Amino acid sequence: MSLISYIKETKGELSHVNWPTRREGIIFSVVVIIISILTALFLGLFDFVFSRILNIFV
Q1: What residues have CB less than 8 Å from 28, skipping those under 6 apart?
Q2: What's the pLDDT tens digit per position in 14-34?
Q3: In terms of Cα–Cα distance, which of 36, 34, 42, 35 is closest to 50?
Q4: Are 28 and 20 in contact (CB under 8 A)?
Q5: Rounded distance between C-alpha atoms, residue 27 and residue 8, angstroms
Q6: Entry pTM
Q7: What is the pLDDT of residue 39?
Q8: Does residue 20 sit in helix, strand or coil?
């Protein structure tokens, strides 16, 4: 497969993709950011609790 045919086939496949609207893209991005922040807070809380517990025993 040559590079030119690969690029043509890739362009053809991308025309079949159902791209999200601008509004959907913004909403999805905000959801990902919120979930990332919540996950960071959750893991940070457990890190804090476990480090306190380890400090008690060490």
Answers
A1: 20
A2: 989 999 999 999 999 999 999
A3: 42
A4: yes
A5: 32
A6: 0.68
A7: 98
A8: coil
